[in-house]
Amino acid sequence: MATKITRDVIESSLNCRYKGHLKLAGEQGSPSDYEQLMRESREQVRLAATAKLLARHKEGEVLRGLTMTLAVLRRGVPLLLDATVEDEEFCIRLDALQRADGSSRLGNFHYMPVLFHEAERPARKLRALLELLGLVLGSIQGRPPSWGVLLYGRNCEVKRFRLRPNVQQTRRTMEAIKEIQCAETTPRLTLNSHCQVCEFRHRCNAEATAKDDLSLLRSVGEKEIRKYELRGIFTVTQLSYTFRPRKRSKRQRQQKQPHYPALQALAIRDKKIYVLGTPDLPASPVRIYFDIEGDPERGFDYLLGLIIEANGVEERLSFWADTPAEEQRVFQQFLDVVGRYPDCRLYAYGNYEAAFLRRMVKESGRQELSEHLLPRLVNILSVVHAHVYFPTYSNGLKDIAGYLGVRWTAADASGVQSIVWRRRWEETGSAAFKDLLTTYNLEDCVALQKVTRCLYALYPGVPTTDGAVSHEGPEVSRVEEATFQSRMHGWNQAMYAVPDFGYISDRAYFDYQRERVFVRTNKAVRKSQGRHRSRQGKKDTRANRHIELSSQECPSCGGTALTRRPHRSLARLAFDLRLTRSGIKRWVTRFTTAWHHCTGCGTRFLPGDYLRLEEFGHSLKSWAMYEYVAHRASLANIADTIRQCFDMPIHGPQVSAFKQLLAQYYEGTYKRLLEKLVAGGLIHGDETEVNVRQVGKAYVWVFTNLEEVVFLYRPSREGDFLHDLLKDFKGVFVSDFYAAYDSLGCEQQKCLIHLLRDFNQDLLANPWDEELKSIASDFGGLLRRIVATIDRYGLRRRHLGKHRRDVDKFFRTILGQAYRSEAAESYRQRLVKYRARLFTFLDHDGVPWNNNNAEHAVKAFAYYREVADSMITEVGLNQYLVLLSVYQTCKYKGVSFLQFLLSRETDIDVFRKSSSRRRAVPDIELYTEDILLPRPSHGRLRTTGSLESNGSAGKGHTWGGDLLTIRVS
Question: Cβ distance 113 to 149 under 8 Å?
C-alpha cells in the first residue's frame, strides 16, 4: 500500500517533486541547521497563533484535535484546531478551520483553511499550499473555500488570500502529487534553489554529479533543461560541445553581453577559464571591497565588512548592528570610511549590497548620496556572468573563490548558515556566534578581493593598482582566439598561425595569378588582358541623335543681345533605353552647345539646359529598378548587364543612385497607398526579420488589403507605432497572434491558419495526448463546416451567421472540461483569451479567416532578403521598400510595374484607368523628355541627322527640314 500524502509531502512537492517522491518513499535525510531552525520557529508560531485564535473565541466555540468528518463539520463550531483529514490517499493535519458564510453540503455555512507558518513574508508558495489544503477541504464539505487565512512570522501577522476561482491549476498540482504516490517510475531529479536548505541536498548533489546532470549548472532553469532534452542533450558534457560563438553587430555590442551556459559547460569540461569580450573594469588608486550580512525575510542588515586597499596598505573593518534601529548608524560609519577616499571604487558581489545602499539612502532622506555613491559601485558578479567563465557549476562567490584557492574557517559557511548564526545569537547572546559571523563576513570580503584581482589580471589592458597581482595558476583562454583560429571570415579569408602561409595563400588567388603571373607567361592571357584594358573607361560616342542647345536671353540681365563662339563648342552624351514591343535598344543623344557672351552686361555663360542635363534617362532608370525589384538582380549585376548588353559606361554606385532617385519620385505614391489602406475597411498585417548592416536584427512590417500593399521598416519588433499608424482605421485588422496587435482599438480577426499550424505541431510532438487531440478535433470539425460554407457562398455574413451557434457550443464544451494535460490546458486558455477575435469574419462581408494576403506579400521581401540580408543599410532598405510597395500594389492590381515606371505616372489607379486608352507617343517626344531638363526654362534645340516621326509634331514642336526647335515652358 502506498504511503499516504501528508502536509509535509505537499510542501516538499511544491519545493521539489523529487523531494516529494523521497518523502513518500520514506527516505530520511540529514536536516540542515536552517531547516531545524525553521521547524523550531514553526512550533513557536503555532503556539502563538493558537493562543491568538483562542483569545478571540469562547470556550464552547472551539474544537481541538479531531478527525475531520462530515458529521464533525456539520456541528458548525466557529473554530476547529488541529483538524485531521484522513482517507485512503491523505492524512493531512490542518492547523485550523474557520467557519464562513456560504451554502455548502454542511448547510448555509462552510469552512476555510487557516495556515500557521514561520515565514516572515507571505510567499507565493504559501498561497499555493492554502489552495491545495482548500481543495482537500472542499472534497469533504462539497464546496471549495473562496478564502484562506495565513498567520505568519514571529508576530503572527494575519493575511487573507482569495483562493483561485478556477481550480484547474490546483487540481493539476494535486494530480501530479498523486502520480508521484502511485507511479512506479520516479520523477526527474532537478537541482534548484531549495537544495541549499534541503535535508537531501548531499544525496541529490551526489546523484546529479554522477549523472553529469544539466541541473548542476545553476544558470540553467527547468524550462531550458526541457528544451535541451528535446534536442537530445542530457548532460553537461554534451552541452559543452554545442557552444558556437556568435558574431555581434555594432548595435548588439552596446547591449548587455548574454551568458552562455554551453560555454560554462565547456569551461568545466576543459578545466580552464574562458574569457569572452572585454568588461568595463574601472581604474582606481583606492579599492574598497565590502560585503553585507542580513536576514532577507525580515529586511534587516546587521553586519557590514570592508577591506580597504590604498597605496599598498590594507585595512579591514567590521560594523555590527544589534537591532534594526542601528542600521543607520552602520550606514553612517560606512559613509565616514568612504568619505576619506573621494577617488575610491566600491566593489561588491551581486545586487544585495546595491539594494542596501539604495534603501539606506531612501530611509535617510539624503538623495544626493545616490549621485555620488552608487556610480562608484562595481558589481563583480555582473562582470563574471557576462565575460568570464570559470570551471565551476555556478557563479557563486563560494564556488569561484574556492576554485581560486580561498578557504573559509567554518566548513558549512554560507549565506543561509549566517541566518542561523544570527538568530542563535539573538536567542543566546553568545559571543561565539558573533565571532563566527564577523569572521565569515571578512572572509567573504577576502574572497571578493581575490576574484576582483583575478579579473584585473585576466585583462592586462585594464589599468591596475599596486595591490593587484598577475594571474597565475589556472589555464586561461580567450574565446575569440580559441574559436576563430581555424574559422573562415567571409570567402577565402582565413587566419594563419604562420605568417608565411598567409603570404603564400594570397598569391594563389585567381585574379592575382592571372594579372601578375599568367600575363607574363601566356600570350593568350596577355592579349585578352590588353583588349580588356583598352576598353576600360571609354565611352561609345556613336549617337542616335544630335541636339544643339542655345539660350535666347542672358541669365544675369535678361538681355537678348548675345553672341556665340561655335569654334569653342562643348558636348555631352545622354544615355537611355528605347523600349518597344519587339525589344530594347540603346538610345544615345549628343547635346552640344557653345559659350554665350552678353554684349549688354559682359556675362559669359552656358545655357542652363546644358548644365542641367542628366547622363542617364528615366527609361534606363525604370528598367534597372524593374530588374532590381521584380527579378531581385543585384545593383552590380544590373550595371554589368547594361555595360555588356548596351555598352554604356555605368557602374554599381550609379545604379544605386537610380534607386534613390526613383524612391524619392514615388514617395508620394507610397504615402497615398498608406492613406488608402487606413481609409479602407480591411487590413492584413504581418512582420518578418531582417539583418541590417551596422544595426543587427530589425523588422519589416507589411500592411495590405486585396489591392494596396505597404512595407514599413522598424529597428525593433515593438508595436507602439501601430497606434499612431492605425488610429483612424475603422475596419477589421487581420493578423497573427503577436501580442503587439492585441492592444489595437479596431475589430480584429486572428489568422486561423496560424492556430491550425500550432495545433498540428504540438499534436505531432505529443502523439499520445488524448485531451489535446480532443480539442483539436472539435476545433477542426467546426472550422471545416465553416470553410465548406465559404467555398459554396463566399465570405458573406448572411450565410456564415448560422455558424455562430456552433462556435458558442464549442466554447461551452471546452469551458466545462477539466484538462490535466498542460498542452491541452494552454490551448484552452488561448482559445478563451481570443474568443472574440477568432470568428470576427462571421459577422462581416469580405473579411478572410486567414492572413494569407499579408504572408504572400511578405514572401516578396523574403526572396529579396535571401540575397541582401546583412548587407543592406537602413537608408537603402527604406528606399527599396518604397519601390517594393509600388511593385506589389501593381501586381495585386494587375498592372505592369515596368509600364507604370515608364509612364512617369505617380497614381497607380489613374494609370490603370488610362492604360487601355493610352495612344502611342512619338519616340522623339518620349526620349527627349527622358533626358531633358528637370525644371522649366527657355531655349532652342537644334538637331541633325535622321528623325523618326509618326507624321505629326507634338505640342510645342515645329518641324523645318532637319532642324527641330523645342520651346520648354
Answer: yes
